Amino acid sequence: MKHRQLGTSDLRISPVGMGTWAIGNDFWGKVDDQESVRAIQAGIDAGITFIDTAPAYGAGHSEEIVGRAVKGRRDEVVIGTKVGIIRTEDDFVRNLKAESVLQEIDDSLRRLGVDVIDLYQIHWPDPNTPIEETMTALNKAQEAGKFRYLGVSNFNIAQMEEIRQYGDIVSLQPQFSLLKRDIEGEVIQYCLDNGIGIVNYGTLAGGILTGKFREIPEFEEGDNRAHFYPWFNKNVWGNIQSLLEVLRGIADERGVTAGQVAINWTIRQAGITSALVGAKNPDQARGNAGGGDFELTQKELNRIDEAYKKNVAGIL
Ligand SMILES: NC(=O)c1ccc[n+]([C@@H]2O[C@H](COP(=O)([O-])OP(=O)(O)OC[C@H]3O[C@@H](n4cnc5c(N)ncnc54)[C@H](OP(=O)(O)O)[C@@H]3O)[C@@H](O)[C@H]2O)c1
Questions:
Q1: Burial status of residue 289 (CB atoms within 10 A of its CB: 0-12, 13-18, 19 or more)
Q2: Structure pTM?
Q3: What is the distance in A from the centroid of ligand 1 to the CA of 20?
Q4: Contact 281 CB / ligand 1 (< 6 Å)
Q5: Which residues are catalytic?
Q6: N or C, which end of the chain has less CB nearby within 10 Å?
Q7: Domains of the chain
Q8: Is 50 in the pocket of ligand 1 (CB under 6 A)?
Q9: CA 25, chain centre distance (Å)
Q10: Which of 173, 184, 154 is nearest to 305 (CA)?
């Protein structure tokens, strides 16, 4: 995979990135930690150099697993983690107060087992804390060498404008996939105009874009993905399956998988630096990395966009 520069930073990352929410062993059903470590390492072996995690994923567990996986391989990866969501027993609580932010950075460094975080991202805006307070704390931590670059996630243009009064951001992490395209147009253009890279999440829309679910799945207890991603709902199921038929067709013609086609479509979109894809085991990680190893033709991209317009645009 040919690496790409992240915004105005000097970080160069793979166009397919490793998402690690599920390996926090919380919210996505039960996962095996050894298998999670192997998944991350298989992803790195297959060319993935960007790993995204967050304290909110399993209340620190995902960061610990990432730390274990990159031990001895720190210089092969760019690590992004986040700040501002506290995982309680049954909730995700926004908190960007200075005291909490400073505590979170130290906790993340310890759990990851690293001296510096490459990309530190504000996970969600916190309407109860002035951004100036948060940025004063973050600027202090950055000056102290605790992280290299700042990014934001789930911010709109007005929120990016506001935060940039207090310091630079190099990236935005929004939800974006073949099913969720609302950043197209204004948000992507804003990022392009201002040198802000985009590392999108939900690239496989919670796995549905692999095409592996032929019927609406009944997820095991503890797997709450259907509450986060609305694609497993019967109102939209048929529309998504029609789009998947086109992905499967292109995949068969090329000898790749539908998931790889969905990933490749994503990293071919203007403004997208790296598409985060979650993986629970080595096979998935290798397969997802393979989504960056070919280039869909313009004709294939058009076929996908036509199928999207016909079947999926505007359904949600
Ligand atoms: N900033 C934010 O607010 C935010 C929000 C969500 C996610 N994220 C980040 O973005 C990452 C990616 O998004 P995501 O993990 O939510 O969803 P995703 O990448 O759309 O889907 C990941 C899931 O799809 C299935 N899958 C993945 N690769 C597969 C393959 N090759 N074959 C078959 N199934 C496969 C796996 O679950 P099963 O095997 O169980 O089906 C996996 O857990 C997250 O891990 C996280 O790092 C950030």
A1: buried
A2: 0.98
A3: 7
A4: no
A5: 57
A6: C
A7: 11-311 (3.20.20.100)
A8: no
A9: 17
A10: 184
